[in-house]
Amino acid sequence: MPKTFKGFTPSEAVTFTLESPDGSRQATFRCRKNVPGSKFLEFMSRAETTESFGAMAAATRDIIETALDPDDAAKFWAFCDEPDNGINLDTLAEIAGFLAEQFAGDRPTKPAPV
């Protein structure tokens, strides 16, 4: 009998908020309902290339752009581009990691009992 694999969609909408260092400005962003796993495989393989910071930066930008709801993408990048908001490279990498966790699927966080 062939094995059937069922796709995954997060049970709740994925959103996140960015806030300026002084807390005076913040914006919440919505993500698409799902991001294909193949996009995260591509992200991981490109981000693993430590010899090229350009490849890592492009991979981070691509996965964020892919995950964001198209209606929120321009608002997100505008918030990030405002110097007073303080959204640096570390923050963008942290967002990419958060998105990978949210869209990874239903994998257990603890080993199953034997």
Explain what the structure shows.
The protein has 114 residues and is mainly alpha-helical. Helix content is 46%, strand content 9%. The chain has helices at 37-47, 53-67, 70-81, 89-103, and strands at residues 15-19, 26-30. A two-stranded antiparallel ribbon has the order 1-2. Helix 1 (37-47) packs antiparallel against helix 2 (53-67). The relative contact order is 0.19.
Cα-atom radius of gyration: 16 Å
Question: Whole-number average pLDDT?
Answer: 86
**Spatial order of the strands in the main sheet?**
1-2
Give the termini separation.
26 Å
**What characteristic shape results from the CA principal axes?**
globular
Structural class: mainly alpha
What is the count of DSSP helices, taking H or I runs of 4+ residues? 4
Q: What is the total tally of β strands? A: 2
Strand content: 5-15%
Low-confidence spans? 108-112
Helix content: 40-55%
Task: Spell out the helices and strands N to C.
Answer: EEHHHH
- Sheet of most strands: 2 strands, antiparallel
How is this fold's topology laid out?
Blueprint (H helix, E strand, L loop, with lengths): L14 E5 L6 E5 L6 H11 L5 H15 L2 H12 L7 H15 L11
Antiparallel strand pairs: 1-2
In short:
With 114 residues, the chain is mainly alpha-helical. It is built from four helices and two strands; from the N terminus they run ββαααα. It has a domain of 67 residues.
